[in-house]
Specification:
With 124 residues, the chain is mostly helical. It has one domain (4-119). It has helices spanning 4-27, 30-59, 63-87, 92-99, 101-123. The chain starts with a helix and ends with a helix. The relative contact order is 0.18.
Length: 124
């Protein structure tokens, strides 16, 4: 598995997280900013874990081991999101803003990859 796309998604996630955290602390209230920051941190950890699983899949003998690792990571992420929303005194809207950076990062990385591929075809 080529991990360059996972690395690109991780970089976009980190960049968007920094922007969301900075914006939320400057423009939104502290409670919303705390929720957005916590969501952003979770998504940064999620992107990092995905990259690590992608790197491990190269050395694992069975692809099913990588699938198992991915599913364990997903289950843990779901449990953490549930605990955060249920028990921590954060703003749920801010938290949703924070966790929304990951799909945005995937979209940004995909669009960048698509535009690079189109440029290579038109000039080749």
């Amino acid at each position: 598995m080529d991990t360059k796309h996972l690395i690109a998604v991780e970089k976009w996630t980190l960049g968007l997280a920094a922007a969301v955290v900075a914006f939320s602390f400057l423009a939104l209230g502290s409670r919303v900013a705390l929720g957005a920051s916590l969501g952003a941190v979770l998504m940064c950890l999620n992107a990092w874990a995905l990259r690590k699983i992608g790197e491990k899949s190269k050395v694992l003998a069975k692809p099913s081991a990588a699938v198992l690792l991915f599913n364990l990571k997903m289950g843990l992420l779901i449990a953490v999101v549930y605990v955060v929303i249920r028990y921590l005194p954060i703003d749920a809207v801010g938290f949703v803003i924070g966790i929304s950076i990951f799909p945005a990062a995937i979209l940004a990385a995909a669009l960048r990859h698509a535009f690079r591929a189109n440029q290579g075809e038109s000039h080749g």
